[in-house]
Amino acid sequence: MKIGIVGLPYVGKTSIFNALTQSNAETGSYVARQRTNVNSIKVPDERLEALNAIFEPKKITPATIDYVDVAGVSKGDMKQSELEAGFIAELREVDALAHVLRIFEDEVVPHVDGSVDAMRDIETINIELAFADLQIIEKRRERLVRELRVKKAPELSHELIVLERCKETLEENIPLREIELSPEDERMIRGYGFLTQKPMLLICNIGEDQLDHAEKIHTDFAEYEGKPKTEVVTLSAKLEMEISQLDEEDVQIFIAEMGLGESALVRFIHTSYHLLELITFFTGNPNEVRASTLHQGQTAIEAAGSIHTDFARGFIRAETIHWSDLVDCGSLGKAREKGLLRLEGKEYVVQDGDVLNIRFNV
User: What are the structural domains, with CATH classification, of the chain?
Assistant: First the structure.
């Protein structure tokens, strides 16, 4: 999974990136227009520790998330063609966007538009992303019109119809993630990587002095949580960056003292999984216990292929058990004695928390 972090300048994007990835990327340097920060994190999952006790492997491999932090975007930026070849092209490769909204006040670092107004900022970024998509649509549309003048091609005609619908949607100030497309229509435009079609995570970046009002602030953006493929998270980037620099033991003490319950970044990760409709499955043996991700609805053979192409090519069966049942039994042997291990075929829909042992022959 790869998530692109976007937003206006001076909203705390890089602070959130640093907190997520425990990096030390420079903050506050808006002049670095083409700078992009990229890093990965290991997804915390307490289930891995429980399975570690079962398999006692040589290593544990968590699932990972890649974060891409691009330079701040301001009004009119998408009219600069060089950006399409730069960080915008990178954003087209991500699975979702995280739009950082500035809620905090800071006299030392003024807002680029003169005042803090998150609703206005949402509109600004939406317009910029839509403009970037419209540029792609218009270029492709012109090419399709030329080609259809000289030959009849039903698939190209269909693509033109889909692009016309996308164009009209964006011109009505509606992001593409909010329209329903058939699987065939989706396939036709998937390669364009439209920014407004990507799931959107709105991050309300509050100040430490606003922590007591976090729930109220979150409620102010509830209307966006009702929109398709959109979620909202409220956190303090400055505070989370400080937490990320602490040792694990000190983190728990600090969180308890602040009355936070859990790190907001853990909620961020969980919300990202929900937004992208991802699940986690596990594989385990004496060499390794691994956590892997799939989209909801994907099958055992797709899970096998995500581990290694040979597993999918020679797939026979998947020996399957839910992680909690395995932990309750204490071992695969006891689970097998109790009849809790199931043999599933290639069409089996993998469930969150499944432990799979892929049987294959190549």
Answer: 2-275 (3.40.50.300), 297-360 (3.10.20.30)
